[in-house]
Design a protein that fits this description.
Elements (H helix, E strand, L loop, with lengths): L1 H18 L3 E6 L3 E6 L6 H12 L3 H5 L5 H23 L2 H24 L5 H13 L20 H21 L5
Antiparallel strand pairs: 1-2
Helix pairs in contact: 1-2, 2-5, 4-5, 4-7, 5-6, 5-7
């Protein structure tokens, strides 16, 4: 399953490098058409890869395990996201930093949805992205604060919201994983 995560991370990073901060006009329910930053969509392959990896369970083996499966799952999520942030800092790219924040935000949404939606939880980040496109009334560089995804890398409220949501998502992952120890 680590191959899936590696490919998901590679595809997301490649998309971030290729599309940079490009904007396209997309339909909005509240603003007709609106310029949308394409980096909002960049984390989706990584989120899907993490969802597949976290959903691939061996219940019999995990039930008899002496290792903390939830802890390993949480460590995997943190390491993957930290890797993306590290690439952003090493390159000095605001686009990569913003997309790493978006990845953390969307992964947190997926983690929070897992107890209720199981495999379908991967659609929650996709749905959030679509809600932002459909209902954000202000174009970049000053989108509405609740949207998080189109915010620049320097937006402190987006970083704070992402950190809080990620901690909640990791706690949810730890509580709902098949820990036996």
């Amino acid at each position: 399953m680590h191959d899936v995560i590696t490919v998901g991370l590679f595809v997301s990073l490649l998309l971030a490098f290729l599309i940079g901060g490009q904007e396209v006009a997309l339909p909005s329910l509240v603003a007709g058409t609106q310029q949308t930053v394409l980096t909002m969509f960049v984390p989706i392959p990584l989120v899907a890869a993490l969802a597949v990896s976290l959903g691939s369970r061996l219940p019999g083996i995990e039930a008899s395990s002496v290792r903390r499966i939830g802890g390993w799952d949480a460590a995997l999520v943190v390491c993957v996201l930290a890797g993306w942030v590290a690439v952003g800092f090493l390159t000095g790219s605001d686009v990569l930093l913003a997309s790493s924040r978006n990845a953390a935000f969307l992964v947190a949404l997926m983690l929070l949805a897992r107890p209720l939606a199981a495999e379908a939880s991967v659609m929650v980040p996709v749905a959030w992205t679509m809600v932002v496109v459909a209902f954000n009334r202000r174009p970049p560089p000053d989108p509405e604060p609740w949207t998080i995804l189109p915010e620049p890398a320097s937006a402190p409220h987006a970083a704070l919201a992402t950190a809080v949501l990620l901690v909640a998502g990791l706690i949810s992952l730890l509580r709902t994983s098949k820990d036996t120890s």
